[in-house]
């Protein structure tokens, strides 16, 4: 037996589904402990365990040799799924594991992969001889083992998918396969371009930018991908008019990274910059974000809140961050010319922006009707396909 970590508490307050299922198995059978093991080449690793673990010298994470186990004998047919009075059974009484764990009775069923290959075992054990165990005990454990097999298969699928997402992001980071397209922000009354927004593009990728940024956040590489995107955007800024602000999108998490602040301060020396914080990114610590923004704002970097009107978080961002620019979410802008509710919400945000001194920009303007409805309600600045699609500026 390998050295084992301290036993896990037998309560299931953490809501872990597998532990609850193991508790159900031992309670239904009247057993002391239950575990889920997975097979390696010649051992079984106890990944989850519940019950009176200490009294049977069992702990989660411990490893037992398969050769000495009841499990391998059940799988080979040398033992039935139910073993009672293990200390008197000729097959089990002399096994080292019987003495080490003090096994008096045992019920086990294989946990199978989708191809029906056994990949582990659901085992229930007790110190007593298990006189209450019968055929229904086997059926109970087999049913629960089937559920565990489905659970493990889903876990493995999720792990493979997470690994694939990580590999995609790492490939982008290593090869720096990102370009910056820019979309104009215009004065909708005159058509004059007054700013640009930098939008990351990943040539040759099936996944769109939103998917790749989501993948990066899911695998803990979100800030690294944002840094690459900002670095590329600042390089692109050299090909744009210096007097027009360039907006870059950043999550609150990225804003807290020192490298991001240094990048923006260097970029602000040659380009008018706006940092846009999206409504979809929660801010857990507003004071920390405000502290990170302070040197940027002193250097002339403007602050924008993106996706306003998409939810409560955007309004909270506006109240706490006091942005220079507020962008109306595309869901609010779309069909604003025909929807009185959208028109009322737009008018309210115009009044709010006026009170706070922020500039209001409508995103996703696609039709002349939307443009005219927005202008009629006091929204002067707009961005969308009506005025120009995102494009990589010429070198």
TrEMBL record:
<protein>
    <submittedName>
        <fullName>EAL domain, c-di-GMP-specific phosphodiesterase class I (Or its enzymatically inactive variant)</fullName>
    </submittedName>
</protein>
<dbReference type="InterPro" id="IPR050706">
    <property type="entry name" value="Cyclic-di-GMP_PDE-like"/>
</dbReference>
<dbReference type="Pfam" id="PF01590">
    <property type="entry name" value="GAF"/>
</dbReference>
<dbReference type="InterPro" id="IPR029016">
    <property type="entry name" value="GAF-like_dom_sf"/>
</dbReference>
<dbReference type="InterPro" id="IPR035919">
    <property type="entry name" value="EAL_sf"/>
</dbReference>
<feature type="domain" description="EAL">
    <location>
        <begin position="162"/>
        <end position="395"/>
    </location>
</feature>
<dbReference type="InterPro" id="IPR001633">
    <property type="entry name" value="EAL_dom"/>
</dbReference>
<dbReference type="GO" id="GO:0071111">
    <property type="term" value="F:cyclic-guanylate-specific phosphodiesterase activity"/>
</dbReference>
<dbReference type="Pfam" id="PF00563">
    <property type="entry name" value="EAL"/>
</dbReference>
<dbReference type="InterPro" id="IPR003018">
    <property type="entry name" value="GAF"/>
</dbReference>
